[in-house]
Design goal:
213 residues; alpha/beta; Rossmann fold; 2 domains; 10 helices; globular
Length: 213
């Protein structure tokens, strides 16, 4: 029987190595990436049945990557494996196209169950998550305003890279735009969010799961 193809996306090498032992008997591990932009490049090329991904990743966070993966690889199931159990993060992950959300402190048995559920076309949410999260998700009542609703995807990309401490020139290179364009987006972000310093932007990005400490 052919094993489902899986792509891993997590920037913690030791954790990924541990995942291999859990997953390799049941899945064909076709690739590993350590940041969101590498994930967007690898997924269309590898065409995995399932992508097991972290929420906090360098260069592009999991939620914003998921929004683009839904277009790039619409048949791939997205399974989030994250340390974040905050209701906002979980809701945003499912808005972005997730099929499952599992906490990193869950057991290997639960992770396998979540992946199998996703591959059957069903939704899985870790039982450790609160009823406050589960009720609206299970009943598809995701009516709350999304995180950073006032920011465009490009603004969110710029915000994350600024919060990661990357200089304007590097951000421009990563996004394939001019440095002036990056500065324009940063100015708009500062104005829209009512923040004043790079430190303020970084705190905001951490609080909203765009970057991790």
């Amino acid at each position: 029987m052919t094993k489902p193809r899986m792509l891993l996306a997590d920037d913690h090498t030791l954790f990924v190595e541990a995942l291999h032992k859990v997953l390799e008997t049941e899945f064909e591990l076709v690739g590993e990436v350590g940041d969101g932009r590498s994930l967007l490049e690898a997924a269309p090329r590898l065409k995995p049945h399932v992508i097991l991904m972290d929420l906090s990743m360098p260069l592009l966070n999991g939620i914003d990557a998921a929004h683009q993966l839904r277009r790039l690889v619409p048949d791939s199931k997205l399974v989030f494996l994250s340390m974040h159990g905050d209701p906002t993060y979980v809701t945003e992950a499912f808005r972005a196209g997730a099929s499952a959300y599992v906490l990193k402190r869950s057991t290997a048995t639960e992770l396998l169950q979540a992946i199998r559920t996703a591959l059957r076309g069903q939704i899985y949410i870790s039982p450790m998550l609160t009823k406050e999260v589960m009720d609206p998700l299970l009943h598809r009542r995701l009516t709350a305003a999304p995180v950073q609703a006032d920011l465009t995807l490009r603004q969110r990309e710029v915000l994350q890279l600024v919060a990661e401490g990357r200089p304007m020139k590097e951000i421009a290179s990563i996004l394939c735009v001019s440095q002036k364009t990056v500065e324009f987006h940063k100015t708009r972000i500062v104005k829209q969010l009512g923040l004043h310093t790079t430190a303020d932007l970084t705190k905001y990005a951490v609080a909203h799961g765009l970057v991790s400490l």
